[in-house]
Write a structure and sequence with these properties.
By secondary structure, the chain is mostly helical. It has one domain: Up-down Bundle (Formate dehydrogenase/DMSO reductase fold). Helix content is 75%, strand content 0%. The protein is built from 17 helices and no strands. The N terminus is likely disordered.
Amino acid sequence: MTDAQRQPDAGRWKSDGGPRRRDAASLAAGAKPDSMTPRGYYGVPPIHKPHWNWLIIFYFFFGGIAGAAYALATIADAVGPARDRDIGRVGRYLSLAALLPSPILLILDLGRPERFYLMLRVLKLRSPMSLGTWGLTTFSGFCGLSAAIQAATDRRIGDGLFARRLAHLPARPIGAVGTVPALFVAGYTGVLLAATAVPLWTKRALFLGPLFLASALSNAVAGVALILALTPRTFPATLRRLARLQTLALIAESSLFAAWSEGLGPTARPLSEGATGHLVRHGVSGAGVAAPLLVQAIGTLLPERFARRLTAVSSILVLGGGLALRYAIVVAGGDSADDPDATFELAGEVR
């Protein structure tokens, strides 16, 4: 007996490319997902699920705050009034504080520390991971230098020769140049997700970069506002300006998220079902966007003595919503990768 006789299906699998190709072709021809049999490779999803956990989620969160806070500090120094100089000072310190755990989280996720070093040996312009590694490294230099200049100006590192030379460096030009990699770090994580084969992330790929950038800006404004709200000498007018900027960032973030998720169609199911769906509705949209906007609206009707408390509450809600957004997108992406229908639908659209 020949091998073909022992395995009567062998020729069929070889000629039509297996279940994955047949299912994609069926979907492209207009067949409904329920009519596809078998699903995936004998029940195994067609693509590998990303095994990202809280290390990457926190890396996305802190890295976004670091980049956006740096950009916010530079812009505040360039166009803000003199009484808002504290925004730039706090923004640079916050940027460094949020940046410090980012390389650690990334290296821990890689499993082996030398992998981070190996990615710096070459620059691949078509690789989001390579560009992200170089962007993070470049931004780290500018962020550390700007924070050191600010510390020297504030006389927090003594009054020696080194501190005096640091204080005389051109802080604004350095900040202007450093804003380029800062904004890249704030938004590239969305591009990194979009460059994968996960249907939820790649179907509307152009939205994820701007979405993560807008979310990073709202989180950075919230972080700066929270610190200033806890600082007694902060001017109430400064807090009001930050509240207006935060409102604009939240509107942009929620609009981009709505446009992205609505355009996904059935692929967006992981974002609307189960525990992740509850988190999106109540954590991201509710506590992270609607509640802070409501608190800020109430603050405009109350005396200034309530401004600090309301700013602190609003900022904490925004920060929680930003972390929830990244958690929901990462977890929903894993669920999307486990759904063969989403993969076959995307393959049919590509064809």
